[in-house]
Specification:
The protein is built from ten helices and 13 strands. It is α/β, with parallel strands linked by helices and about 325 residues long. The strands form three sheets. A six-stranded mixed β-sheet has the order 5-6-7-3-8-9. It has a four-stranded antiparallel β-sheet with strand order 11-12-10-13, with helices on one face. Strands 2-1-4 form a three-stranded antiparallel β-sheet, covered by helices on one side. The chain is globular, with a radius of gyration of 24 Å.
Length: about 325
C-alpha cells in the first residue's frame, strides 16, 4: 500500500524535515501519525500525496511513485482541520478545502458526484448513509460559509467519504467537533478500514482519540522515526513507570533506601515516581502507612499521553521498529 525506505526531504538552507524514515503501511490499517509542531508530519504527508519530491530514498503509494503519478483513480482523500483556522487560500499545507464556500452543501455534494463520476444509485445510497450520521440532512440548503465550525468540519469529512478513497488522510479533523461527532467520526473511520479496506492516516494532538481509533501509532520527532507500533506495545514498554501521591497528617517519613526515581514534598503531600519492576507499590504503601499518618493515597500508571510526552523528551534515543 505505502512503502518508504530511507526517505529524506531536505529543503534549501539545509533544513531536513524528514530524516531517513523507513515505514510500511498496509491496506486497511488505521495509523496515528503524531509529533510536535515542526516534527515533519506535514512534509511526510505531502510526499505521500505526491506534492513533494523526496531528496533521496524510496516511496511507493499503490505501487506508484506518488510524485507525478499517472493513475486516474481517485484514491486519495484528505481533510484538514487547519482549513478552519488558517483561512481559505486553497493551498495544501496552508488551508485546503474540498467544499466551495459560496455554494450550498447540496450543490457541493452534487459537484463531488460529478467530479468523481459516482452513479446515481451509489450517490443516493452513500448520501442516505452519511448525512444522518453527521446530522447534516437539515443543512443541505445552507451555503458552506454559513455553517458553524463543527458543522463545517463534519461536512468536510462527509464530502470525502462520499467518493470512498482508498487512502484517507485526516489532519486535525476534530477541531470544533463535539464529543458525539468525534465518536461518530471515529466509528466511521474504523468501519471503512474494515469494510472498505480503506487506509486511514490520522494526525491529531488528541491522544485519547488516537487510542480509540488507530491500531498503530507512528511518532516523528525532528524528522526521525521515534516509535512505530501499537498503543498496547507502547504501554507494555513503560508498564513499570508508576507515580504515587500521598497526603499526610504531618511530615512524611524518611523513604530510607527505597529505590525511588524522584520525589517531591509540598504542603505535607508526597509525590514519588518509581519503577514498578524494581520496587512494588505494595511495599512502598505498606511502609508509608506503617511509618506515617496517611490521610489519602493515590497510585497511578501513566496514560498514553504521558508516555508519548516522555517519548518526545527522549527523542531519537528511543527508536523502536514495528
Amino acid at each position: 500500500m505505502i512503502v518508504m525506505k530511507n526517505l529524506i526531504k531536505t529543503f534549501p538552507g539545509g533544513i531536513t524535515a524528514v530524516n531517513d524514515i523507513s515505514l510500511h503501511i498496509a491496506q486497511g490499517e488505521t495509523i496515528g501519525l503524531i509529533g510536535a509542531n515542526g516534527a515533519g508530519k506535514t512534509t511526510l504527508i505531502k510526499m505521500i500525496c505526491g506534492l513533494y519530491l523526496p531528496t533521496s530514498g524510496y516511496i511507493r503509494v499503490f505501487g506508484e511513485n506518488p510524485y507525478g503519478r499517472k493513475s486516474k483513480t481517485p484514491r486519495i482523500g484528505m481533510v484538514t482541520g487547519q482549513v478552519i483556522t488558517d483561512g481559505y487560500n486553497y493551498h495544501f499545507g496552508h488551508g485546503s478545502s474540498l467544499l466551495q464556500d459560496n455554494m450550498s452543501l447540496d450543490l457541493n455534494m452534487r459537484l463531488i458526484k460529478t467530479i468523481y463520476k459516482i452513479s446515481d444509485d451509489i450517490y443516493k445510497k452513500r448520501l442516505t448513509e452519511i448525512l444522518p450520521e453527521f446530522d447534516l440532512k437539515e443543512l443541505l440548503h445552507y451555503r458552506v460559509n454559513q455553517l458553524s465550525l463543527g458543522q463545517r468540519m463534519k461536512a468536510e469529512v462527509a464530502a470525502v467519504l462520499l467518493f470512498e478513497p482508498d487512502l484517507l488522510i485526516l489532519d486535525e479533523p476534530f477541531i470544533g467537533i463535539d464529543v458525539m461527532a468525534k465518536e461518530t467520526i471515529g466509528k466511521i473511520l474504523q468501519d471503512i478500514a474494515v469494510s472498505k479496506k480503506s487506509t486511514v492516516i490520522l494526525t491529531t494532538h488528541n491522544v485519547e482519540e488516537l487510542e480509540k481509533i488507530c491500531g498503530r501509532i507512528v511518532l516523528i520527532d525532528s524528522g526521525r522515526l521515534v516509535y512505530n507500533g501499537s498503543f498496547d506495545r507502547l504501554k507494555r514498554m513503560h508498564i513499570g513507570l508508576n507515580s504515587m501521591h500521598i497526603r499526610f497528617d504531618g511530615m512524611p517519613p524518611d523513604l530510607q533506601d527505597f529505590p525511588i526515581e524522584r520525589y517531591i514534598i509540598h504542603n505535607n503531600i508526597l509525590t514519588l515516581y518509581y519503577d514498578n519492576s524494581v520496587v512494588s507499590s505494595k511495599d512502598i504503601s505498606n511502609y508509608l502507612l506503617s511509618n506515617g499518618k496517611v490521610k489519602d493515597i493515590l497510585i497511578r500508571k501513566p496514560s498514553a499521553e504521558e508516555i508519548i510526552r516522555e517519548l518526545y523528551k527522549e527523542g531519537n534515543n528511543v527508536r523502536n521498529n514495528y
